[in-house]
């Protein structure tokens, strides 16, 4: 047994790890598992979704081959262990990008589909599932099936299905045609939530990508930096790869505290305000700013951290977002990360997909025991009253009742689960 942790580093879990290295032998290894299993990739889910204590972890990183690319349609077929970093690095200089990408490139294709990831362009492109053409799925009964698009209910259950319907072996994704790897981007300062919603509405029809960082430490709350951009037409030579600074060890105490938060947030706001202008930016820092710091998760110390990400309906969204900011300030807890985005109207493909019409709010919190738990209870109440839901890929403690209320497709989804696949999250929220 090998101990592994999710990205939040909340608790290690012992697994029997089985590496899948080629598509021909993988189905047999999946079917021969003597205990419940779960496909794992780069372990960037924050909570207990990628953990299966005492069970099998099918390590997908060996299934990392690009299989085929159609330059007419943009259809890329690849194995599930290929990473978004691999795809962007290979195809962006050739005029293609992932149609949707989350805030880190260190995610496998299989994991991205299983969580139906969304990105800065949700208001234009929807989530990743809207661009998946086909999947090959291996189940623990030994069957291997090609799922051709959203007309297949198993396809819909697998997109956003948290890895519980089977093991994705390969996928075909319709890529996005671009001029090259550069983005035309601009930072806009906003002073409060009203200004955020105003800038977001103003940017919606003219910018394909948008997201906002919110300073959660200020009284009154809601000031921040709104980043918006498009794929650039002008394409200068690509820069050399930037150096990644890595957090070398886990400190004995969290570096995230009230003092460091105030210092960082004030400094970051001042820096961004001084640089607020339109500029050409390489896709890497535009899409993946946190990837510039390797193992940044370690700064939260040995107790780890949570990410709380919710989405609430757009109608009346200002009030719950404002109340969440207030509760966070009152608690004395908080994070460098406070991300707000107005989502699009495109309905997700997945039966259990998180993205939906509304406003999504994501924040990181150090694990501080009862204080953290008490804050989450208050935030849950705000989200539930607003008719919102939490993101399972980020979660380690959502109440079962909140999960059931937030995901109305749950009863339909259960019929497509693979009985030989289980996770800490599925046992916590679904009972098996």
Automatic annotation (TrEMBL):
A Pfam family: FAD_binding_4
GO molecular function, one term: FAD binding
Residues passing through the membrane, by range: none
UniProt domain FAD-binding PCMH-type: residue ranges: 10-178
Protein name: FAD/FMN-containing dehydrogenase
Organism, scientific name: Demequina mangrovi
